[in-house]
Amino acid sequence: MIKNDSNNPFEELQKQLKDLLKGQNVTINPAIFPSDTSDSAPKPSEPEDPKSASVETIEDPLQQIRDFSLKPKEIVDYLNKYVIEQNEAKKVLSVAICDHYNHVRQCVENPDIQESEYSKQNILLLGPTGVGKTYLMRTIAQLIGVPFIKADATKFSETGYVGSDVEDLVRDLTKSAKGNTELAEYGIVYVDEIDKIANSSSQGGGKDVSGRGVQINLLKLMEDTEVNLFNPTDMMSQMQAMMEMSRGSGGKPKKKTISTKHILFIVSGAFDKLAEDVQKRLHSSKIGFAGTAKPDEEEDICKYLHSAETTDFIDYGFEPEFVGRLPVRVACESLTASNLASILKNSEGSILKQYSNDFKGYDIKLSLSPEAIDTIAKKAHSEKTGARGLMTVFEKVFRDFKYELPSTAIKALDVTSKTVNDPSAELKQLLKDNIHLQSEVLKEDIERFIKDFNQKHGFTLSFNQEASLAIVEESIKSEKTIRSICLDKFKDYEHGLKIISRNSGDQVFEITKANIESPDKELSRWVVKSFNDEKETSVEEI
């Protein structure tokens, strides 16, 4: 009787598939399976390069963890470059991160410490959307140098057959670590929208078995468990595991599981309905509507989330054990219009820098007046989506500018409050004020077409002044680009010019106004003329 590995329920299936490969009538091409062959034994005919071997032994994926020496204030100073406000959240997170990775560093240096009892400081982040919850953790992970993955809790199911399996979080963390399971065991897993899997029966919505099941499965991950690196419900993953086994004993065996003991878990959610519950608890002694009115503003929601206790989360629909594995809890503040303006002006990751680089790609300098920044911030705040509202406003304001300006001679875009409030009118005025420069740009576009035509077909088109003016006028009138007009007018010239060149030997052709007004008619005239000229030349030779 074969004994199954409890950590790998598909061990028997893998063995049977491996035995199947030994059959005489079964052949499988290993190339069709994605796999990492870096650990395979070197072929006898290709001895291992000692230089490459020395590099592998020198490289230490855990070096940054071994060297971890950051202090909470240093982490906060770094975060301040990217995330505006959220001072309390930064303080709480920096302390939790330092405590966690100081312990991890000690465990890496002295494996005996791992046997001692230690409670992980998994984190629960609360607050409205767009206040920087994900950005905070992603920035911290980049600073420390550990793999980071983010997923939404709503995509998981209890079994994994309908939705995703929660263990996929750890497998994805391994992918983020480029397959290095050792490094992945010290990474960060971020699960957003955790409030969406609260047991709805506690909120009067009926029984929610799936939400509770996902909580239980996440609870196992947050404690200390071994996750099978090959998904039991994914046939491709199991076939890949089989291919690993079929390589033989010559190579270094790969780990089949990954421990979650030192993986830091962060869960987050808006928890707006929880704020209502907290408000009711805090004002239960009050009589009338004043004590039961719903917190409408984000500021009110955040105020009550700061006061949330363990019993509030349990009443909300979370398992007591699940909440107990999230000892570090912090509510992020909502962002004011002033905060959004500060993000634009001071954050290293500001959307303003992104848009400035977008315009810079067309040699256009983008600049915003202080009044324009304040106006954008106010509009973004009214979107009620936090910092994400900035992107929404920027897209509305600059969409048509991005479309029109690259095809013009305009090299500077100075944005004022008027631009933000009425971008369409300001764009029209800007184009009108610079129309005198447009002819030169369009002439440059003609030269670009001439160059492209020569490189593609080997013939040179020489536009005379009348032809250039005619096509520029047509471009302005039709609002089409020079390129599209030329491609349409001269689409058949390649074939006609080959005939003419064969008859006359010419490689350079002058484009006149007649070619612009009647391109096909003029080309036909050229072709006929080339045949007539060839006949006359033949007669003269006779």
Description:
The chain is an alpha/beta fold and 542 residues long. 53% of the residues lie in helices and 8% in strands. The protein has 26 helices and 11 strands. It has helices at 11-21, 50-58, 63-66, 72-80, 87-109, 133-144, 168-176, 181-184, 209-222, 235-245, 272-282, 298-305, 310-316, 320-324, 337-346, 351-360, 370-382, 388-404, 417-421, 423-433, 438-457, 465-478, 482-489, 493-504, 513-517, 519-541, and strands at residues 123-126, 148-152, 188-192, 226-228, 257-259, 264-269, 328-331, 365-368, 412-415, 460-463, 508-511. A 5-stranded parallel β-sheet has the order 2-3-6-1-7, sandwiched between helices. A two-stranded antiparallel sheet has the order 4-5. The longest helix has 23 residues, at 87-109. The radius of gyration is 34 Å and the shape is elongated. Mean pLDDT is 81; it is low at 1-6 and 24-58.
Please report the distance between the alpha carbons of the first and last residues.
Answer: 102 Å
| Multimeric state | single chain
Helical percent range?
A: 40-55%
The structural class is: alpha/beta
Number of strands: 11
What's the short story on this structure?
The chain contains 26 helices and eleven strands. Helix 16 packs parallel to helix 18 and helix 24 packs parallel to helix 26 (519-541). Residues 1-6 and 24-58 have low confidence and may be disordered.
